[in-house]
Amino acid sequence: MIEQAVDYPVRKDKRSPNEITNRGWLISIYLSSWAVLVSSPLSLVTYIFTFHRRILFWYFIYRGAICISLSQNFAKPDKADRAVSWYRSALLLSPLLSTEHEAIALFFVASAHQILYDLGGATNNNETARNTYQKALRLSPSHPGLCLEIKNNIGNCFLAQYKLSSNAEDLEEAISWYHDALPHVASTHQARAMPLNNLATCLRTQYEKHGDIKALEQAIEYNKDALALSLPTFHRSTILSNLGTCVMDQYRQSGEMHHLDEAIRLFKEASSFLVGFSDRAVLLNKMAYGLYTRFNQQGNMDDLDGAIWCLNKTLQLLPSGHIDRSTSVSSLASCLQARYWQQGNIQDIENATRYNKELLLQHPPGHSNRAMSLSNVASCLGSRYARKGNVEDLDEAIRCYWDALQLHPPGHSEWPLSLTKLAVSLNSRYSAQGDIHDLEEAIHCYRSALVICRPEQSDGSQVLVTCRTWRKQSNFIRMH
Fold first, then answer.
1. What are the residues whose beta carbons fall under 8 Å from the beta carbon of 321, sequence distance 6 or more?
2. How far apart, in Å, are the Cα atoms of 154 and each of 102, 141, 242, 312, 396?
3. By the 8 A CB rule, do 245 and 230 touch?
4. Is residue 134 within 8 Å of residue 123, measured between CB atoms?
5. Long-range contacts of 248-257 (CB under 8 A, 24+ apart)
6. Of 194, 192, 248, the residue nearest 220 (C-alpha)
7. What Rg do the C-alpha atoms of the chain give, in angstroms?
8. What is the pLDDT along the chain (480 residues), one digit of tens a residue?
């Protein structure tokens, strides 16, 4: 929406309010300086030089902060590089001021290198950031807030190194630094939320790697401790999301429905804090997955409708070409197809077909997910043919199944299923058009599937019976 322009009254004094305030502030400084000059000219000279250094120091920090903001908002590594230069200028000036100023400058230099690494810069930026943080820590052992943030960020550096190397020692180092950060502030201080959340992330990583249930339970406790603090809205939403993910892991491990219910509740609460923000898409996706899982367990249509609503909202936040859009499109198509099978609304299968075709365009030849996309498009077209009787849909479905089959070499786990789906479609076309070649090709597909499916298995037995029935039908037709 374009906001209507507002005419403001013209100020009689052409100077800005800041200029007027600054002049008054400067006059007070000059008067106090004059008093010092009368008592001791040398003190005034020292004061002026120190004052100017401090102004210049914070000017360098301010300019660096502007560059960092631009680099993060617009993903521009060159701005982070520029920030490093500004912060290093402040660092050169800091020994003339105090040890605290030097520690602050080192902290900002390290932060800029860390952001540069996160934006895809050279891997040595992470090591430079870690070493610079440690130098800053040695200069500020008595500043609790700065010490907590430095130790938390050192932990982040080790965690980033673990993601690159998969070395368990790096993960243990990260956990150790996050633990060391906690005692620097009171147990009710909101700054504890950062290391608590990061600890939970590390412990959940240990659970994923080794299946350690105690690590998952401890991660949940740390997230709950962080939620007990007074937090800004965005941070609270992040921790709720992480807690929901851990509780969902508990459901997958135990199968207990109360864990799934709790995870859905947490995702819903987290998403309510981010209405209007693109970050909400991740939470809506997680909530949709939870609702769809519960629908499959309990069959409640309200859960399926809720999942579809969440995914529609997600796609509104993820424009075409967004890196995360394909996952949501695939999930929405699956949910719409499931609702069509439950309620038979033709619009659902139309929309599912459209979304699967959109996904197929994002998976060109050579893409690892192309075979699955072809199979999904064919499945939707087959359902639409069964409802509307348009043979063109059936022809296109058969072509998609053939193309998917070419991407599944014999012996592939999906080979029998692809052959079976193709056989069913070919038999449907035989029933519609009476072409004996379609029936024989369907029988050939079923026989090929039997090479992998053992007859004693339920699927294999069903395939064998169908194959024999169709063979008799084919022989009867040829005889007459």
1. none
2. 18, 15, 21, 40, 56
3. no
4. no
5. 248/286, 248/290, 249/204, 249/207, 249/216, 250/216, 250/220, 253/213, 253/216, 257/294, 257/297, 257/298
6. 248
7. 32
8. 333 333 333 333 333 333 333 444 344 444 444 454 445 544 544 545 556 788 888 888 999 999 999 888 888 888 999 999 999 999 998 888 888 889 999 999 999 999 999 888 788 999 999 999 999 999 877 778 889 999 999 999 999 999 988 999 999 999 999 999 999 988 888 899 999 999 999 999 999 999 999 999 999 999 999 999 988 887 899 999 999 999 999 999 999 999 999 999 999 999 988 876 767 889 999 999 999 999 999 999 999 999 999 999 999 988 887 888 889 999 999 999 999 999 999 999 999 999 999 999 988 898 888 989 999 999 999 999 999 999 999 999 999 999 988 887 776 777 778 888 888 899 889 888 888 898 888 888 877 777 665 544 444 455 455 555 544 444 444 443
Cβ atoms of residues 418 and 375 within 8 Å: yes
Token pair in block for residue 128: 């430079």
Distances (CA, A) of 321 to 74, 313, 318: 17, 16, 8
pTM of the predicted protein model: 0.76
The token duo for 203 is 């412990």
What's the CA gap between 102 and 307, in Å, rounded? 53
